[in-house]
Write a structure and sequence with these properties.
The protein has 214 residues and is an all-alpha fold. Helix content is 77%, strand content 0%. The longest helix is centred in the N-terminal third of the chain and has 45 residues. It is elongated and about 60 Å long.
Length: 214
């Protein structure tokens, strides 16, 4: 007798990972939006709104807003980095069709697919936080310019330098993860000339245009 149908663990894990991934990116975007609001409203209005921010309703709204902003930031970062990503991909795949075929071939190997999905998740987080860090640096500078405190020029310069260095770090991590992902996919699907246990057979490359995203 067959028991009740249960959700497939891989699909459930993938959905959970995607939700967390978008939320992680969205939290940074929401923080930048809050800093911008603080810079625009000033100290007096911010002090009046502070008690409202700690309510349960505000927490729920913030969670929903963070998720929505995460989607927007992810799409914006993808659009900004797509030309560079395509140039990196041509090092390992001569056409979009060859890349798509490699992805389809890899899907036959769940272990390799899970590793590739994990790598792409980290890549998307780094991609989104490249924009987040730039936005956080700009809005933090705006807040410091609005408020008066000791050693403001020094703190402002240090914050800007740290923010720019962090943004470059996220970009460099995104680039390294992207190149590594393409290289591993090419090795796993096109490099072997003889069948290897646990690895897919070579995939013939075809030249036929068509956009494919990671």
């Amino acid at each position: 007798m067959t028991g009740p149908t249960q959700p497939e663990p891989p699909a459930l894990a993938a959905a959970t990972a995607m939700f967390i991934e978008v939320l992680v990116v969205g939290i940074g975007a929401l923080t930048a939006a809050v800093l911008l609001l603080i810079a625009l409203t000033g100290p007096t209005t911010t002090a009046k709104l502070a008690p409202v921010a700690g309510s349960s309703a505000a927490t729920g709204a913030a969670l929903a807003a963070a998720y929505a902003l995460g989607i927007l930031i992810d799409r914006a970062a993808d659009a900004a980095l797509t030309p560079h990503r395509r140039r990196l991909r041509t090092r390992f795949f001569p056409s979009n069709t060859a890349y798509a075929q490699a992805r389809l071939r890899l899907a036959d190997f769940p272990v390799l697919t899970a590793r590739a999905d994990y790598a792409r998740s980290r890549m998307r987080i780094c991609r989104g936080w490249t924009l987040n860090t730039l936005a956080l640096t700009l809005t933090a500078d705006m807040v410091m310019l609005r408020y008066s405190f000791e050693h403001r020029p020094l703190v402002l310069g240090a914050t800007t330098a740290f923010g720019m260095a962090t943004a470059f770090g996220f970009y460099h991590a995104w680039r390294a993860l992207t190149v590594t992902g393409y290289r591993k996919l090419a090795q796993q699907t096109t490099t072997p000339t003889t069948p290897t246990p646990g690895l897919p057979s070579p995939v013939p490359a075809q030249s036929q245009p068509g956009p494919t995203s990671p």
